[in-house]
């Protein structure tokens, strides 16, 4: 007799902490929608157990993993091969287990780009973009944003050096520069301001640069929550044209991972509606 449990393909998300992750719900909805025979697990793994946990998942027949905070940079060393975008970002959020080897990719940047351009219809070509923060999240989104040909992209970070390193890394791909978090030029406004700091996660609200907002500015927080994040609340207070949290990016990056694993592209709009309503 055919045993369903044996033939189910296994996927999951590894992070620390992980209990609040929406990825299992999103991937289960994708699987249902596209009739894929798969399961998706929530795996809480502390940094010192990462290598062991990834190997174990692979050795027990796992097909692929999503990797989230704080493992996105560390997991790159376990990959036999990296996509160009993961290599440039220096961060991996998607693993594919092939015949004994591990392929690492990064779908965060394309996820943001899809949410901005397809879901939200925010034009990017010729615009002025400000990114706050210069950690792993910023590394993942800079390449895809530059591919949309903005006029300028400024990275502002508390530790100036980290912003400078990223600007230098991508300097061949477009007009990109760096400054300190408190040194965003007061005389200029931006079309798009992206919060890629982790400040909101700790409830911190650093002094975001109010002079960067014009009446037409779109503010996008890579973080998301049931209630408005500190950055999205700040953007509303300062009358940004739109203030958006990263639910759409979350669903779009998941769809890209799903496509890499299963070869089918799920429709994201109904899933986005379902999870942000459920939130
Ligand atoms: P992620 O992978 O989410 O980007 P990260 O690599 O730890 O996480 O980066 C966190 C980012 O948020 C960094 O740019 C950090 O600034 P520093 O590089 O100066 O540490 C920024 N950040 C965190 N808390 C902040 C705060 N209270 N004010 C301003 N920036 C903050």
Can you describe this structure?
- The chain has 279 residues and is of the alpha/beta class.
- The chain folds into 2 domains: 4-106, Leucine Dehydrogenase, chain A, domain 1 (Rossmann fold, 3-Layer(aba) Sandwich), CATH 3.40.50.10860; 109-247, 3-Layer(aba) Sandwich (Rossmann fold), CATH 3.40.50.720.
- It contains 10 helices and 12 strands.
- The strands form 2 sheets. A 6-stranded mixed beta sheet has the order 2-1-3-5-6-4, sandwiched between helices. The chain has a 6-stranded parallel beta sheet with strand order 9-8-7-10-11-12, sandwiched between helices.
- Strand 7 (128-132), helix 6 (136-147) and strand 8 (152-157) form a beta-alpha-beta unit.
- The protein is globular and about 60 Å long.
- The relative contact order is 0.13.
- The structure holds 2'-monophosphoadenosine-5'-diphosphate.
CATH superfamily of the largest domain: NAD(P)-binding Rossmann-like Domain
Sheet-strand content, in percent, reads: 15-25%
CATH architecture annotation of the largest domain: 3-Layer(aba) Sandwich
CATH topology name of the largest domain, in short, is Rossmann fold
State the end-to-end distance.
Answer: 41 Å
Question: What ligands can be seen in this structure?
Answer: 2'-monophosphoadenosine-5'-diphosphate
Main CATH class of the largest domain: Alpha Beta
Count of helical stretches: 10
Q: Pick out the low-confidence regions.
A: none
Profile the largest sheet.
6 strands, mixed
Structural class: alpha/beta
Q: What is the helical fraction, as a range of percent? A: 25-40%
Overall, the morphology is globular
Oligomer state equals single chain
Pattern of helices and strands: HEHEHEEHEEHEHEHEEEHEHH
Count the beta strands: 12
What number of structural domains do the residues give?
Answer: 2
- Main β-sheet, spatial strand arrangement: 2-1-3-5-6-4
What is the gyration radius calculated from CA atoms?
19 Å
Provide mean pLDDT, rounded: 94
């Amino acid at each position: 007799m055919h045993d369903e449990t044996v033939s189910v393909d296994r996927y999951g998300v590894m992070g620390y902490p992980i209990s609040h992750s929406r990825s299992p719900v999103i991937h289960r909805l994708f699987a249902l929608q596209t009739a894929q025979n798969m399961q998706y697990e929530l795996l809480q793994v502390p940094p010192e157990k990462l290598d062991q946990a990834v190997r174990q998942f692979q050795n027990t027949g796992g097909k692929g993993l999503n990797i989230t905070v704080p493992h996105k940079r560390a997991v790159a060393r376990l990959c036999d091969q990296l996509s160009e975008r993961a290599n440039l970002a220096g961060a991996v959020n998607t693993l594919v287990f092939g015949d004994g080897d591990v392929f690492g990719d990064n779908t965060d940047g394309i996820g943001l780009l899809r949410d901005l351009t397809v879901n939200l219809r925010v034009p990017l070509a010729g615009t002025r973009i400000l990114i706050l923060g210069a950690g792993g999240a910023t590394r993942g989104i800079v390449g895809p944003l530059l591919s949309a040909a903005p006029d300028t992209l400024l990275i502002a970070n508390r530790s100036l050096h980290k912003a400078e390193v990223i600007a230098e890394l991508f300097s061949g791909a477009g007009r990109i520069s760096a400054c300190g978090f408190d040194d965003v030029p007061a005389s200029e406004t931006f079309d798009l301001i992206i919060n890629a700091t982790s400040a909101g996660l700790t409830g911190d609200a650093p002094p975001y640069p109010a002079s960067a907002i014009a009446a037409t500015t779109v503010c996008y927080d890579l973080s998301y929550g049931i209630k408005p994040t500190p950055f999205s609340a700040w953007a509303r207070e300062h009358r940004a044209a739109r203030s958006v949290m990263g639910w759409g990016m979350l669903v779009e990056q998941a769809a890209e991972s799903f496509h890499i694993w299963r070869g089918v592209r799920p429709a994201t709009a109904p899933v986005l509606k379902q999870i942000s309503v459920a939130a």
